[in-house]
Amino acid sequence: MIYGNKIGKTKKIIITTMFELLKYKNFNKITISDIVEKSNINRSTFYRHFLDKYDLLDKIENNMINYISIRQDEMLVSFLKINNVPVEHFSALIDECLNNIDYLKIFLENSDNNSFEKKLKLLIKNKLEKIFIFDDKTISNNKTELIYHFSTTNVLASLRFFIENPNIEKNEAINFISDMYNKGLINIILETRKD
Question: Is 32 within 8 Å of 54 (Cβ atoms)?
Fold first, then answer.
């Protein structure tokens, strides 16, 4: 078991090192030598855990996607039960994003192939498919794809907004995002005009 703990610690060191490198260096410019030197490990130790730097990045991205997926499942359950997503679920998701803002910034800004963004879009699309059954022929394939695209774009835009505006009043933003999903943008605008 001690060896297992050592493997976990070494893997964590490698992952942390990759994030540190990504803060100031483009992924394509990072080498295995950079990673092992900064991690203070041997090349063979790196390859015991990861196939290459792409495998490392893929596993890091998948870990973040899995966490977001868990949060979205909580939102999905609420939506299916009460036809609404309580603000607490948006708050939990946004809190997690803010706690990992440096990582999200790296994923969204430093990825030349946009693999994280593609994974996130696919995750959101899969969650939407669970909420809405689009087998019904009353909704065309084009409209279905448009709903997916619209939703994923909004999530990514919201994440980027928090990245670019770290001093934003979190509760105000969370309530706004919650209202947009639950009430719709037009209703929000009309409510704002009445005030």
Answer: no
Q: How far apart are CA 153 and CA 147, in angstroms?
A: 10
Whole-model pTM above 0.85? no
Mean pLDDT of 151-156: 77
pLDDT in tens, 16-65: 999 889 888 888 899 999 999 999 999 999 999 999 999 998 888 888 88
Distance between the two ends of the chain, CA-based, in angstroms?
Answer: 62
Res 55: pLDDT: 93
Specify the CATH superfamily of domain 1-50.
Homeodomain-like (1.10.10.60)
**Cα 56 versus chain centre, distance:** 17
What is the gyration radius of the CA atoms in the chain, in angstroms?
A: 20
**Please, are residues 115 and 65 in contact by the beta-carbon 8 Å criterion?**
no
Q: What are phi and psi of 100, to 5 degrees?
A: -115, 30
Give the three-class secondary structure for 23: helix
Percent of the chain with pLDDT over 90: 18
91, 23, 4, 46: CA torsion to nearest 10: 150
Using the CB atoms, write b or e for 111-144: b if 16+ within 10 Å: beeebbbebbbebbbebbeeeeebeeeeeeeeeb
